[in-house]
Amino acid sequence: xxxxxxxxxxxxxxxxxxxxxxxxxxLKEKRIYFINVMAxxxxxxxxxxxxxxxxxxxxxxxxxxxADIDGDVDAARIVKETGVKTIQIHTSGACHLTAQMVNDAxxxxxxxxxxxxxxxxxxxxxxxxxxxxxxxxxxxLLSVPEGDDKPLKYPLMFEVxxxxxxxxxETADIFDFDFQKCQQNIHKRNQNAKIFEVSALEDKGTSExxxxxxxIIQGR
Amino acid sequence: xxxxxxxxxxxxxxxxxxxxxxxxxxLKEKRIYFINVMAxxxxxxxxxxxxxxxxxxxxxxxxxxxADIDGDVDAARIVKETGVKTIQIHTSGACHLTAQMVNDAxxxxxxxxxxxxxxxxxxxxxxxxxxxxxxxxxxxLLSVPEGDDKPLKYPLMFEVxxxxxxxxxETADIFDFDFQKCQQNIHKRNQNAKIFEVSALEDKGTSExxxxxxxIIQGR
Lengths: 220, 220
Fold this sequence. Notes:
The structure is a homodimer. The first copy, chain A, is of the alpha/beta class. The longest helix of chain A has 20 residues. Chain A is built from nine helices and eight strands. The relative contact order of chain A is 0.17. Chain A is globular, with a radius of gyration of 17 Å. At the A-B interface, strand 1, helix 1, helix 3, strand 4 and helix 4 of A face strand 1, helix 1, helix 3, strand 4 and helix 4 of B.
């Protein structure tokens, strides 16, 4: 070939995984279940979270970490529409959260007494998938307007997510979205992925998802 | 507001800056000038590099580090079209290079005897701007098809780049690109930015840029 090939990220990922495992251990001792929510910008993460939190908050003491490069509109909305404890994490430009960043945030966010913690990760279908945040489970959202081919283009996000939620299903007619093809594409990346189809706006499919979350949290 | 705001990236950036300063010191001792080239995918980084290297290789011993998430088409092209020493860096999914990653790559890339080192960073207008790579200077490319408003939308990339190269100027008529507005937008972000307008395809403006690089390298 005339040139060498070097891989340079292993060390960083190994260190991050170690930190993520430590964090999982700490949260397990505190009996806090931690769900990392990932998606592109505009896929409907905050809207779905508001919906799910209002269905789950009678049974769980919920906390939310809202991660954004800057701004705090999502945190303000969670507080206003659900009333649960919320913290805004600013990544100062970073396109993802590392386990270290989550750990730093949790230090400033009194999590004692909580038993369910959501992280709304930075809106991005690439970078957040690379870094284990220390969560018990990854839940990713794919909105109908983004297209049914996304699992083919962004494999890692689908590989690392146990739960894949297809959102904004009320727009399927406009966007010619093929649910069956999308499910096949998701299962190509992760054959054990649990797929939900929801419309947070019309409150469709969200109870099924909330019940599934209840089951896995209580069965931990 | 009802919620706290936490900033979580300072430590990582401080550590990266320290590593970048160390790397700059090592390269200075070896008398190697290091240029970090950044832009969106498809802005014409490799094409411009081939053009510049062929203009500069009689005066400098040049090495190229090609960073990509995966693949090696750009490294193969640099070797084929310039013949200079090239290394392919795979970031295994990472959207930018840290100083540590560059350092790891340089360890495997025998840089002794070189006096000019180019890094073609991962194609991305956001993430690479956040991390000091240890380079002496950042050169960013903005292609005409991307639009003259990009300095407003991606401020950091323009703030950290001493050299801004507007590429693909041969397409300006098709895209209704306002050069004066673009220059104003760039100078809003970095009033000392040195702006070049080039067409690597038609070999326009590239000699001025090559001469400018010669001057800054020899004047270091």
